[in-house]
Amino acid sequence: MLQNLRIRLVLATALLLLQPGPFRGEASADPIQLDSWDGKRALATIEDLVKFTPRAMETPGHQQAIDYITAELKKTKFDTVELQRWTATEAGRSMAMTNIIARFNPSNPRRVIVATHYDSIIKAYRDIKNPDGLMPGANNSASGVAVLLETARVVSEMPDAPPIGIDMIFFDGEEGPISMGAGDPDFHSIGSPYFVDRLAEFYPRTRPEKMLDFDMVCFRDMHLKAEQSGLHSAAVEVKKFWEIGLKVAPGIFAREAAPYAVEDDHTAFQLAGIPSFIVIDIEYEPFYNTTEDTPDKCSVQSLEAVGRTLVKYLYLP
Fold first, then answer.
1. Which residue in 129, 210, 274, 301 is a FRET match for 166, CA 20 to 30 A apart?
2. Is the pTM of this model over 0.90?
3. Which domain holds residue 206?
4. Which CATH number characterizes residue 55's domain?
């Protein structure tokens, strides 16, 4: 049942804003070339990350993932990398937490946050045969990390910077205090609310204009639908992103919106009044949070569809 999924679904009340019919906008005239966004390289990143399974808090893979992401970012022009560290007291224990923040063109006062989470569920609780087995998390959560790292590389190699400064944030603790999702009645993300509560430390003068969140974006049979909380919070931005996606990969992006809202790292930003939306495909059965969430379920084409759309979006005026 839906309420047993880690991503909580809530009753949707927003009107459908992505109406059928031709899309129009500035994206069609965008001259940005996208061939350098390499889905094979992104898939290789996923394969690297699953070697650190599990990547839940207080496991060896958690620190290995932090070290890997930090090292990859330092190869790019997102070289202003900050580690936001703290100790969270959750579920009766204290846990060392780390958000990773990387900035491109930090002098630009206009900022957009592009985010994902890097922690993984500690065991494959939805696996019928092996619910105590390890959950590799190729789609949930390595795919989002791969999209951001490859995008950082591509933007760094562009001859011109985007018109808006980019802050990439890799959040810790999205899977909740016990890293299980279903079965935890107190499930809530940890890293993104912590960051939002301290937003002024990173944005002392002007808040970020918008926030995009990426989660579960590599499935070989992916069909991306705009989810409802984003249509409430950032309808104009959602439409811009989907307009591009429908041109870049019409077989992966859908015109119809999803009938549900999703709670994820974008939620804390929405609650803070920052226009925010998530790009996610939750239709991932029968592999969702099982031992079978492995890189062979991912595709180069799905990764390129999302990553190339993101690059074009970032270069819009």
1. 301
2. yes
3. 2-314
4. 3.40.630.10
